[in-house]
Structures are given as C-alpha cells and as structure tokens.
From TrEMBL:
Boundaries of every Helicase ATP-binding domain copy: 75-250
Protein name in the entry: DEAD-box ATP-dependent RNA helicase RhpA
UniProt record similarity statement: Belongs to the DEAD box helicase family.
Region annotation (Disordered) ranges: 1-22, 417-550
GO molecular function per UniProt: ATP binding; hydrolase activity; nucleic acid binding; RNA helicase activity
Entry-linked Pfam families: DEAD, Helicase_C
SMART domains the UniProt entry points to: DEXDc (SM00487), HELICc (SM00490)
Biased segments, Gly residues type: 430-445
Basic residues biased stretches: 513-526
C-alpha cells in the first residue's frame, strides 16, 4: 500500500523521448493508488510495491531507490501469495525480487522457528551463488530478528549442523548438502512456507533433478513456490508444471538475450596460442579494467592461470579443484581490486556479482549455447557497460553458430575472417551484438543460405556420445592436444568433488571396476625374481600364443 503522505517519483517521456523523473501530487498519488500506473509510465520507488516502511527504509539505506524491472513486476505478485516463474538474466536484481517479499511475509508472521526447522528455503546450484544470496539477504534483515543460514558442500558439515540447531527463518542451500543434513536429522522441511529455485536451468544442467524431486516431497504441498531462470528450455517448463500451482510468468529479458549494455565481439583464431596472445594484448590495452576469462575445463583454467601469473598479471583462478577457502580468497581479491583477472570455469563463476567487471573473455566457447548468455551476464551489471570478447578456433565454429542462433544476432568480428560455412542467424529485434564503434566491426561478414552442421547433430544436453571416458585413456579434460582435433569434452562439474554433486547415472552404462584376470580376483602380484632376464623370451609352453583372457 502507498502511504498517503509519501510522494514518489515516476518517469515520463519528455519531448526528446528521454524518461524524466516527475513527482506526483496528492491527486496523482490517489489516482495511482486506485488505478495503478498509466501505460508507458514506470514507477520508480519501492513504496508502491506493497513493502512495509521499515523494509523500504532498509533497502533505501543500502542505496537502492529504484526497483529493477524484475523487482517491479515480481514483488507485487509475490506479496499476493502467487507462485511465480521469473525469467531474467543475472545482474537484474533477482535476489531482491524474491527476497524482499519473503522477508516481508516472514516478519508479518514473526513466530520463532522450531529447532531444526526452517520457514523458507532457497535452493541454488553452487557454493558461490549460495554465499552471494545469503550475503545480500543479511543486508536486508539487519534490523530484524530473522535468522539466515546457508549450507554448502566443501565446508564443515558439523558446524552447519550446529547452526541449524536453533531453527532458521531463511535457509539458502545447495541441494546435495541439504540432503546430507536431512539424512543426519539436522534439519526438517516440514515447516517450509516459501520455496525458491534460483538458477533452475543450471541446477538441471548439473544433474540436480533427482535431488530436487526428493526435496519437493519433503516440503508441504501448501506453500508458495518461486522459480527463477535465465533461460526457459522444455525441462524447466516441465519442472515448473510439477512444482508450481497456477504460476504467473514474469519475463523482463527474452531467453537467450544478453543484457542491453553488453558489447559483443569475436576473434577468429588459428589455435590456443593465438587466443593467449590476443588475450594478453586485450588485457594490456585495458590496464584499469577487471576481467573474467572463461574456459571449459579445470585443467585448461589452471594452465592459463599459471601462464598469466608467470608473465606478471594480477590473476587468480576458481574451478572445481580449488578448495572453498581458495575460492573465497580469490573472489575477495577480485572484488577488492587486488586481482585484475579471474580465470574461471562456468560452474565456479555462478554467483559472481561484482559490478566492476568490465570485460568477459570466452577463451573457450561453451558446449551449451545458454552458458554463453550466463557468462557474458557477469559484466554490464547494475546499469554499467561491459564488453564480451570470444575467441573462436576452427573447431569451435559450430559452437559459435549455436550461440548466434540462440541470440538471433551475428557477433561483430574483431579479427580474422568469418568462415564461409558459418551462416548468418536471423536477426532479432533489440538485441545487438555490439555498438560498432572503433575497430570493432573491421571483420568481413559472409552470409549465404544456412546449411547443415559441419560436425553433425549435437548430442542431447547433458550426455556425451560414446559413453564415459574411463581412466587410463588419454585425458579428455583438455582440448587442443593434437592439431585439428575436436576433443570430446565432459561438462566441468565443479561440484563433483563435494557432496553437492551426485553424478547422474546413464542408462546402459556399466560402472567402472577393477579389471578381471582369470579367476576375477584382480591381477596377481608378481613374486620377486619372477621377471625374465633381459633378452629371454616366454617359456616354451607359452611361446607364440596370446595371453588367455579370463
């Protein structure tokens, strides 16, 4: 409800088409209270969204005066108790969109939570995102008695169990660690009234669907459920159909569309050495910038990190082989400005909310086009501008084609030539690739009719052709080991080393086990002195015959 005394600002187009702030008078205030905002006018205060004066004061004290589009659309619906599907890119204020109405409703029913229970549950795919959400929510509830806890893998489960002992108002968790704590009877979900699935598309990509189904059976059927996602594949629609009741869809950015202020460019290169040289050149040309460099694999990320560190860059890396403490120190250094370049894999970079990021480099193009949208969403946050630069090797043209097809743009070329087989996608409205200033459009674009994929059809999301790569074979964690090779790349699951990740079994795939030898008891140990002398052949009784397979 609007207070009768509070006059707030709204924006109206002036004669030049620019939105100017205007203050309502009492008559205009009463009219807005009765009929809402006229078409084309954007309300720009938290007061009219149904939040209490106390919570609005807390938000204003943090420097937030104008709701983002996702906040302006979602908060009133959530205050009415509706289930909501929110489609918005990262950096659009989703945490406040679901967090503020949740806090408001919890404060209205301020009963103390029972021991080992939580009143609301927020699920997110990664440790970094859980920590980011928890940090933001704590800022909103500073002057309230609400208790917020967060639980993730890679941290002490015993310490987390103690934190949950006295009851929780808002629990932020990764699915795997939450199930571990439930198995220990450290937490019950029987009192949950609000359930939030944040970055739902990423949770499905990481194989959390089975964990989500288990958790959904543990929360009461009578609850408010919110699902937020940057993209809307069929799997998300199916998930929403089974989790949400009569949901309202709120969409502020079409799926596959990047933030409006991101300039995108691509370098066509011959190989990894060219990528590294161009990356260092770009970093040298922007010494005051702050950049995130994305690679597909942990091995590749660590190798590039060590090289950049060796040549003198202030660099850090985050990926699945890093401990929780190492990740937190790297992110803190990057946030504080001590680190200028952060080398990361997709999963590890989820939840990075640092407005100062000026550049995103796609050193390796992602296997899944949606991941590109998530990557470049790390820049141009909080209304700032940003630049996204991709490096495309000859064996990555199919991946670039998929990205441009998803985004309905043709990314401007900075260097190299667009391959003739790379067809131009159908352009969409309002989603630019770049502004075209400077030398950014120096490359030559070639069109032509769209043909079939040069590399054949893509495998289904989440599965690789040819089954699993087992130990003992050539390392599949690093591309480009042989010239012209398109190595099969498994998703770089940074959560695999923690209890947050449970690898999904592939139907028909056999679990790897010890190699059998004759009686099935493993290879017998050799006795001392049993090796034949140099130059001595096999015993006569076994000469010329291959080893018998047991």
């Amino acid at each position: 409800m609007l207070s009768a005394e509070s006059h707030f600002n709204h924006q109206v187009p002036n004669s030049r088409g620019v939105l100017d702030a205007k203050t309502t008078g009492q008559h205009g205030l009463n009219r807005l209270k009765r009929f809402g905002a006229p078409k084309g006018i954007l309300l720009t205060s938290f007061n009219e969204l149904g939040l209490s004066e106390k919570l609005v004061a807390s938000v204003t004290a943090l420097g937030y005066t104008t709701p983002t589009p996702i906040q302006a659309k979602a908060i009133p619906l959530l205050m009415e108790g509706r289930d909501v599907i929110g489609l918005a890119q990262t950096g659009t204020g989703k945490t406040a969109a679901f967090g503020l109405p949740m806090i408001e409703m919890l404060m209205k029913h301020a009963e103390r939570p029972a021991n080992r229970t939580t009143r609301s549950l927020i699920l997110a795919p990664t440790r970094e995102l859980v920590n980011q959400i928890g940090e933001n929510l704590r800022a909103f509830v500073k002057k309230t008695p609400l208790r917020i806890n967060q639980v993730v893998g890679g941290a002490s489960i015993n310490k987390q169990q103690l934190q949950l002992e006295k009851g929780t108002d808002i629990l932020v968790a990764t699915p795997g660690r939450l199930l571990d704590l439930i198995a220990r009877n450290a937490i019950s979900l029987s009192k949950v009234t609000h359930l939030v699935l944040d970055e739902a598309d990423q949770m499905l990509d990481l194989g959390f669907i089975h964990d989500l189904r288990k958790i959904s059976k543990m929360v009461p059927a009578k609850r408010q459920t919110l699902l937020f996602s940057a993209t809307m594949p069929k799997a998300i629609a199916d998930l929403a159909g089974s989790y949400l009741t009569d949901p309202v869809k709120v969409e502020v950015t079409p799926p596959g569309k990047a933030a409006d202020k991101v300039e995108q460019y691509v370098h066509f290169v011959g190989g990894k050495n060219d990528k590294t040289d161009l990356l260092k050149k770009s970093l040298a040309e922007n010494p005051d910038g702050r950049a995130i460099v994305f690679l597909r694999t942990k091995h590749g990320a660590e190798k590039l990190y060590k090289h950049l560190e060796h040549v003198g860059y202030k660099v850090a890396s985050i990926h699945g082989n890093k401990s929780q403490g190492q990740r937190e120190r790297a992110l803190k250094g990057f946030k504080d400005g001590e680190v200028k370049v952060l080398v990361a894999t997709d999963v590890a970079a989820r939840g990075i909310d640092i407005p100062a990021v000026t550049h995103v480099f796609n050193y390796d193009l992602p296997e899944v086009a949606d991941a590109y949208v998530h990557r470049i969403g790390r820049t141009a946050r909080a209304g700032r501008d940003g630049i996204a630069i991709a490096f495309c090797a000859p064996d990555e043209t199919r991946l670039l084609h998929d990205i441009e097809k998803l985004m309905k743009i043709e990314i401007p070329v900075l260097s190299g030539e667009r391959p003739e087989g790379l067809a131009s996608p159908t352009r969409g409205s309002g989603n630019r690739g770049g502004r075209g200033n400077g030398a950014g459009n120096g490359g030559r674009r070639q069109g032509g009719e769209r043909g079939e994929r040069a590399h054949g059809d893509r495998p289904a999301r989440g599965h690789r052709e040819g089954g699993h790569r087992e130990g003992g074979r050539r390392n599949g964690d690093f591309r480009g080991q042989r010239a012209g090779e398109f190595a099969p790349v498994e998703r770089d699951n940074d959560l695999e080393v923690t209890s947050d990740f449970k690898r999904t079994k592939v139907e028909g795939a056999k679990a790897a086990g010890p190699r059998k030898h004759r009686g099935g008891q493993g290879r017998p140990a050799r006795k001392a002195g049993s090796f034949a002398a140099a130059g001595q052949g096999r015993p006569a009784g076994n000469a010329g015959r291959g080893r018998k397979r047991g």
